[in-house]
Fold this protein.
Amino acid sequence: MTPILTCKGVSKNFGGVPAVSNVDLEVHGGHIHSIIGPNGAGKSTFFNLISGEVPLTSGSVYFKGQEITNFLPHQLPHLGISRCFQQTNVFPKLTVYENVWAAMFARGNKGPLDFLRKAAQFPGINQKSEDIIEEVGLSHKMSARAETLSHGQSRMLEVAITLAGLPTLMLLDEPTQGLAPEATHEMTQLIRRLAGRYTVLLIEHKMHLIMEISDIISVLNLGKIIAEGKPHEIQKNALVQDAYLGRLR
Amino acid sequence: MRNTYLLLICFGFVLIGPFVLPPTTAAEMLIFGIIAVSTNIMVGYTGLLSFGQASFFGIGAYACGLMLKAGVPLLLAIPAGTGLALLIAGMVGYFCVKRTGLYFICLTFAFNQMFYFIAYVWTGVTGGEDGLPGIPRPDLISDPVSFYVFIAVLFFICLLAMLRIIHSPLGLAFRLIRENPSRAAAVGYNVRLFKWFSFIIASAFTGLAGTVYAMLYSIVPIDQIHWLKSGDFIFMLLFGGTGNFFGPLIGAVGYIWLSDTFAVIWARWPLLMGIVFLIVVLHLRGGVVELIGRAYRFAIRERAEATA
């Protein structure tokens, strides 16, 4: 099976300091592929390299066989890659519905003329936006401004906006960041429901969540992949234990 | 629905305008109303603060004025003048939107100064320091009242067109960019392209207002293309309120009233404008619209307490 996303020798130096060095990674269709690693391991930088927020120092990225190295952020959603951010990154003064609708319209419009039509003339987009908001459990907040949401609800909106891009591949950067146990559980349920329908590349810190939902786990430490495998394999890996717990002797 | 009411209120003011004010002053208010609302598309909705909008106002005015003097019919001169402003806005905007924040503002300002000095030195065409005088009006709209009617019709056409843009997905894209440009890009909007569109649309309407301004006093004074005029447009926005589509209209009316009517009573009127500006910036960030909103909420609370 050919991978959906392939990274070959992806590297990034910030002023000579390597943040990500020579990472090879393959993500297969329908998988939940997690990237774990200690703080400062380069996980978020690696995401920013794929999604075009930060230019690569060297290496290349392919999506479904097409090279997307150094594509600009706004080009990727149109190919079917959408991402969420570690720090909640929504449109604060717009309603939950507008947040999701706008993300869906970015992909769903059929040319420049659509930009001058009325919102009511897009029944498909309107319906799908409502469906996605319902899926993440924010139906009761449909017309509330994003800035009025609680932290947990904002994280859900963040994922909803990512879903609204109707992606093949979702890049989720710590969706449970700062969530209370109850909300973490909801998010876990949501990600599990997404499995199969989408391919997910996930950054996470919460170990029990990772072990529960991942198909494949890659471990990043000091900018390098030090291990890759199924959850139970990773759990037993000595290198991973070293990276997380520190070498005892 | 709310917009329909506000449009009706506007219509009411436009109807009584020429009865309470000299028709020429009322027409000037409508012309600057178009500019204030269009500049708000850029400043209020897209979050692009420009100190160069007088460029396009001036270009529209000079172009249309020169064409009318050369005997070009009005129905050709207005679209041609607007088209020229649009074209030049496309070129200027292309460079300006490459930068953000302070650098964007400086670029719009620099381009404005450039157009001002072109008008200043090109005396053979623009009349230089003396302005461009002797611009004729077609016979049909030669008297002040019929000219006012003409401007009022144009005003409502522009208002409806801009309202439509703001409430279309294009307007939503502008607001996304104001709210969070990096996220707007991450969901698939080409931020620079949409900023460029916003720049062009705002400038084209400002240019259109310029073309009819040329006929208002039959002269284009050179200070109409000076960057201080761009600053006046921003004053109108801040005074009226950028958060609402109709807010800038209040600013335009207030500004023209101060500069046309009040200036006769007190020649140092810009001093008053400065004080108003200070109050708005320090205590009333949403402009007059904010004041109306606060008064409305206050009245509701008072009534609730009275009945309780």
Notes: The domain at 2-307 of chain B is CATH 1.10.3470 (ABC transporter involved in vitamin B12 uptake, BtuC).
